[in-house]
Amino acid sequence: MPNELLPSPRRTLGALLPGILLCSGVSGAALALQSLEVRVFGQAWLEALVLAILIGVALRSVWAPGRRWKAGTDFSAKTLLEVAVLLLGASIDPDTILAAGPGLVAGIAGVVALALAVSYGIGRLLGLPPRMAVLVACGNSICGNSAIAATAPVIGAHGDDVAAAIAFTAVLGVLVVLGLPLLVPLLGLTPMQYGVFAGLTVYAVPQILAATAPVGALSVQVGTLVKLLRVLMLGPVVVALALMAKPEGGEDGAKASVPLRRLVPWFILGFLALAGLRAAGGIPDAALAASQTAAGVLTVLSMAALGLGVDVRMLSRAGLRVTAAVVLSLAALGASGLGLIRLLGIM
């Protein structure tokens, strides 16, 4: 049968498969390296999604994938990432909010909002493009790589910007995990205070365990709770960004006439729907575990695709400004966290 007469789904799969398989190979290597880290060091200092980007960038620096791979890598970088974000909605636990109390929840929301504004302002003052400044702000203020990955498709960020933001955030995230416990004696923090401080500062949920374990069990418990509450801010922030985003090809003032379904991406609506279903008790534990696993795998796959599309020369040109923006934003976030501790009188 001539190729042009093949059924459309079959042609589509044939176009996507090479790129998806390429991304799968990079993802497999990243997961293997993460497992090796755990065996050698007892924990993974660099998560698989970070390693997937680094491996993808390294491969792209010596070999530029041709047209045969483009459809699959583009699909992995966009559509599969959107599906992963949707699935994350099922992990939102309403009991986490109820257990924390209104004061701490409101304080965390205030710190995140302040950090977003300050981080964005720092990025713009340093000359970062608006989309890159948003990525850095969200990564620092909410949950690092996951926030960057979730924000990117909403604001239409380029792959180079996403990879640059994640790469520098990942490196700094490791340094934070290693250095944060050293601040306990310098700042005179109690285990409870340090748990709140670490939860408001550390990027990724897995990293909070490594950052708080040296201080004590109370710091681990409090830090994990605060970090999870901070992660819950991702949904409202991404929805707000979607509502503020200017539609492609639109002009100033045209946003009001665009239907809501175009302003709020389908995967964000799905995220909120799954979060509501979880709150209503409509998601069984087995399905929850499966959705979390699927979201993790798809995110690593999409990060591999982003890495494969990155021009290293673009990263090197943006590196100094991005690094400065991330460091200064992190310092502002830490100061805000200490301010919240004093304000609430946490002992």
TrEMBL record:
Keywords: Cell membrane, Membrane, Plasmid, Transmembrane, Transmembrane helix. Pfam families: Cons_hypoth698. Its main location: membrane. The keyword Transcription regulation does not apply. It comes from the Bacteria. It is a multi-pass membrane protein. PANTHER family: INNER MEMBRANE PROTEIN YEIH-RELATED (PTHR30106), UPF0324 INNER MEMBRANE PROTEIN YEIH (PTHR30106:SF2). This is Sulfate exporter family transporter. It comes from Azospirillum baldaniorum.
